[in-house]
UniProtKB/TrEMBL annotation, chain B:
Domain of life assignment: Bacteria
Pfam families, sorted: DUF4130 (PF13566)
Residue ranges occupied by any DUF4130 domain in the UniProt entry: 85-249
Organism: Mucilaginibacter aquatilis
Protein name, UniProt field: DUF4130 domain-containing protein
Alphabetical list of InterPro entries matching this protein: DNA_repair_put, DUF4130
Amino acid sequence: MIEERIIEKLNILADAAKYDVSCSSSGSKRKNENKGLGNASNGICHTYTEDGRCVSLLKILLTNHCIFDCAYCVSRSSNDIKRAAFTVQEVVDITINFYRRNYIEGLFLSSGIFKDADFTMERLVRVAKKLRTEHKFNGYIHLKSIPGASDELMREAGLYADRLSVNLEIPTEAGLKLLAPEKNRKDMIQPMGFLKNEIILRKEEKALFKKAPIFAPAGQSTQMIVGATPETDVQVLQTANHFYKNFNLKRVYYSGYVPVLSDKRLPALHTSVPMVRENRLYQADWLMRFYGFKVNEIVNDTNPHLDLDIDPKLSWGLRNLEVFPIDINKADLQLILRVPGIGLQSAHKIVSARQFGKLNWDQLKKIGVALNRAKYFITCNSSRFERRDLTATNIKQFILSQSHSKFLKNATTQLNLF
Amino acid sequence: MTTLVYDGTFEGLLTCVFEIYERKLLHVKIQKGEWLSKALFEEVIQVITDEKRAGRVLQGLQEKLSAGGMQRLYAAHLAGMDDEDIMLIGYIRYVFDSKKNVEEDYGNKYVLRLAEIIRMVRREKHRMEAFIRFQKLQDGIFYAAIEPDFNVLPLVGKHFKNRYADQKWIIYDMRRNYGLYYDLHHIEYITLDFATSRPDNVISSYTEDEGLYQNLWKNYFKSVNIPARKNTKLHMRHVPKRYWKFLTEKI
Ligand code: SF4
């Protein structure tokens, strides 16, 4: 009987939490030094859902009761659904027992707002505190910071959690006004600013005193829903960039809107999830973070949307043909990273390998370069190279005709990146 | 063409390298275990593992490779992949025949192949770290059975010891019939005698709440799926079918 009730709760509260796409459990370096349970380093995906997403954390809501009525959220107060709430102890028990069986890397705890922000936040913090102190748990803990919660609680949260996040959900203020009139953007941003400063402060303290406690070592992240409101990719990526820069965010997640509710302000039910767009946004995000691209190189007022049929690096390459071809045996790493079809690993391998001798097509292919794309942009140790004076449209057509519709099918999701 | 037959150990492999240089062999084949072929006119050398000879080759390698490079070579051999010994021998010869450290010479086929082998081994190791599912037994030991594609059990011990420092556990490789046992202090290699009970079926000795948590986990796995995003191909690529039989959520 108790077993059935707890299974039912888990079903309800996991179901309500699943639209939060962030699943990362990396970026922390919590070690198991107290001979306790667990550690947190590079996150492991312990399994994958049938839609191909990584499962690394027990991702649940403490409760799906909520006093707010945000249009895009399944838990909104006007939605007629089953409600449930876990006790603090229940969450602790499930987390520990899942962790011991190697099902998960840790806990991602979020919640609907019951009563008010502090009341809710206090319970989230209590779960984390219990895990850390009573169970010597060193696994990963990600807590949602509830907008409007007191600084005191936020500070305590940072002492127990590895990562904290506030979801922006809607990329622009106007969009938020439309869909969540009770929420205001300032309240959402305020805790991010507070945590950013606190993280910096604690880092300095840690540098001076080794014994100082670690504070949210995996930093902050946020999520934006795309496709619920009519923002362009420029707006989405500029917002992301703004938060990376000004709030030192570790990750921004993009979640293609899944139509679960019927509401005049939202895309109709049965509209398909914009998975390709979501994937392109992640690719663009990677270009910004790891490949040295600036936002306005990827999208700008002339090209406000990412191409859906080709990846953003290829789009950039085709718009900037005058930069190419580059000689793979001479060019700087920074430039090699900009070649469509060459990833981070291949770029580094090329730079290592060419010290031993000039590289040819065959070797590049074996190293992992996608020649079907790269060949239009590079030369190497071979007399065979693209001599025709091709236009961007020609190249795009050649590439698309060879790529077995991989770019055209809706089959790719963000996971292809990792 | 000469065939070298050796005992499958790393020292054995290094002894083979010694033989190749001493006898100035150019073209060789290499085989683990017993020499079985009955064909005539084949040149066969049964290489007897020799610590001294292996030691000299090892020392030579250490002078030419970084510590990390040595470890990668060792791990690649330990993995026990079919037919890769000849590539490893080729790699070692290339290392000896080159003046400088060639670990990053990815234009060379042996160097690149070693990198590929290591990538496969790492992936299998990561998969084990991800897909191992412990079941709690009555005596408090957490038990997991695995069947990895390559011999990676020795590589995963440290990870599990760090993570589960406060629980006893056993991870057992069913295919190679040996396992690791952590007793809260050290890891030991063990072999279990399964003559009486089936190793992948330990239900009879579960603790009381084992069933509850397996059930909760299966339910959780179902709940987090978003049918509107279904992508079976991607799912299968991440979790290939051959691993399913040990995955609680897939049974
Ligand atoms: S406050 Fe959060 S849980 Fe409540 S309706 Fe809005 S998004 Fe959903």
